[in-house]
Specification:
Layout (H helix, E strand, L loop, with lengths): L14 E6 L3 E6 L1 H6 L6 E6 L4 E2 L2 E2 L7 H15 L5 E2 L1 E3 L10 E5 L2 E2 L2 E8 L2 H10 L1 E2 L2 E2 L9 E7 L2 E2 L8 E2 L2 H8 L1 H24 L2 E12 L9 E3 L8 E5 L15 H7 L19 H19 L4
Parallel strand pairs: 6-17
Antiparallel strand pairs: 1-2, 2-3, 3-8, 4-5, 7-8, 9-16, 10-13, 10-14, 10-16, 11-12, 14-15, 16-17, 16-18
Helix pairs in contact: 2-7, 4-5, 6-7
């Protein structure tokens, strides 16, 4: 198990580890580092580990190169979207121990909502639609089914949950209660604009962007100022990508993500009881290899570049 495995953030000289999430580790620069490189004031080093999570658990098994895929793909997308929205990337010049899997970013005051855009009906959106005829308060035509394309993309926000808990889908009015009407409208419009641009780019590469989530913030002291796109963006961890050539409404679509992991964990072979408090078992090598290949394929298909 490498230094990027669960619960074991790598030591980065000149940077102090301050937080670990499901996948990412955050560091802030030491005073001496800032003195040697003044542009680092107010920044954070964002490191994508090879950890993988499923069903609100961080697994004990890592997926080699996953963190590199997430970082490189996010950077690629930030560049594609630069004329649509500002982002938090300050520099790709990172310390050697985390080269290829990290970026130096502005520290942001994040909005406490996840901004989800859906262009297709699946997952929790489909469950909501079947129960209410709408998704997060967005009414939809009758008769839609699994993997159907929506008449137009919809904004379906969620509250951010603590590690180990589920995010909760909310409607626009609840979003406005949490962050204010003006900011809610801004985040909704940005989310749909970014989705539309990204969906078009992905489609040109033979990939369907079914849905995705974004996180936004503002730079400290800039209340009411420009909204900035943060975190990761349009990766297999934050988005549902499908092969356009294989898309077939009416059935669950294979995704360029950790579906192999989810499927194995819920199979009889794993022996894991999802309802128990017991953590998931280690992944078999075959599942690790297939998941790694899926992440690499997503990067190469979307960017048109060799990983």
């Amino acid at each position: 198990m490498s230094a990027f495995a669960a619960g074991n953030p790598v030591t980065v000289p000149g940077w102090r580890h301050v937080y670990s999430g499901k996948v990412r580790d955050l560091y802030e620069p030491e005073p001496a580092t800032v003195a040697a490189r003044p542009g680092l004031e107010g920044t954070v080093l964002v490191v994508a580990s090879d950890r993988i999570s499923a069903y609100d658990h961080v697994l004990s098994t890592e997926i080699p190169q996953k963190g590199e895929v997430l970082t490189r793909l996010s950077l690629w997308w930030f560049a594609q979207l630069a004329d649509v929205v500002d982002n938090h990337v300050v520099s790709e010049e990172v310390p050697a121990p985390v080269a290829g899997r990290a970026m130096i970013c502005s520290r942001l005051e994040m909005f406490p909502v996840e901004c989800v855009a859906r262009g297709y009906l699946t997952g929790s959106g489909l469950a909501d639609y079947r129960a209410t005829g709408a998704v997060c308060g967005n009414p939809l035509p009758p008769g839609l089914g699994e993997a159907d394309r929506l008449p137009s993309p919809i904004f379906t926000p969620a509250t951010k949950a603590e590690l180990g808990s589920h995010d909760e889908n909310i409607d626009f009015s609840r979003t406005a209660e949490i962050i204010g009407q003006t900011d809610a409208e801004t985040l909704r419009d940005l989310t749909l604009d970014i989705y539309s641009r990204a969906e078009e780019i992905a489609r040109e590469q033979g990939i369907i962007l079914a849905d995705t989530k974004f996180e936004f913030g503002r730079r400290p002291g800039d209340a009411g100022g420009a909204v900035v796109l943060g975190d990761e963006v349009l990766t297999p961890d934050s988005s549902r990508f499908w092969d356009a050539a294989a898309w077939q409404p009416g059935r669950v679509q294979p995704s360029f993500d950790k579906q192999f992991v989810r499927d194995w964990l819920t199979s009889a072979e794993s022996g894991w009881d999802r309802a128990s408090d017991v953590p998931p078992p280690p992944l078999p090598q075959e599942i690790v290899d297939r998941t790694r290949e899926r992440y690499l394929e997503a990067y190469e298909r979307i960017t048109g570049e060799q990983f």
